[in-house]
Structures are given as C-alpha cells and as structure tokens.
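Entry:
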Amino acid sequence: MGRTKGGLNSKLQAVCDGQGRPVIMLLSEGQMSDYKGAALMIDVLPPARQLLADKGYDANWFRRALAKRGITACIPSKSNRKEPVEHDRILYRQRHKIENMFGRLKGWLRSKALRLTRYIYSDI
C-alpha cells in the first residue's frame, strides 16, 4: 500500500490472454510507475506474439526486452517522447478486453465488500 494525501492506495497490474482472462496479476503501491511493475513481471511473461499496453508502459528498455523475447509491442508513445514509435491502431482496439476484465473484477470486489459490510452491521 502506498501513502498519498488522500490516504492509502494501491495499483493492480495484469497480464491477460487473448480473451481478456488474467494470467498474471501484480498488486503494488499506487505511486509506483507502470513500467516498474512491468520490470517485475517481464521474467514470468507467458509465450506470446504480441503485447498490448497503455502509454504508461512506453519505455525503450521494455520494448527491447519484449523484442528479445520475440514479442511485438503494441504500445502507443507517450506525448513527451522525442521520437514517437508507431503502433498498430487496429490491434490496440482489442485492449478493451483488458479494461472490461478490470471492470468485472472491481464490480465483483464491490459486491463482496457490500456483503461483508452488511454482515458486520447485522451483528451490531
């Protein structure tokens, strides 16, 4: 858990298969950058042809590490990158499957928290 002005926070990072099902999940402090989380997961990545990621993972070392493993990176360039790197915009549209997975996971967690809250207050 990371500490911010708003309190404690965390960040959930996931590697998903082509159907949007999580294969690897990493829970880290909220202020940790995305590519530092990628550094922790790079050694356990499953075999893949392509990797879709958002702009937070745009780092030269990460792209080189993926290329070394034979994985094509589909990562849009950050706006402050001096030399933008092209990405496959049509393939990048498939990233909605990962966003949907996070939405389902957060909805499931909210329902569990609500049930737990009801259970606690029913004993009072």
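DSSP finds four helices and five strands in the chain.
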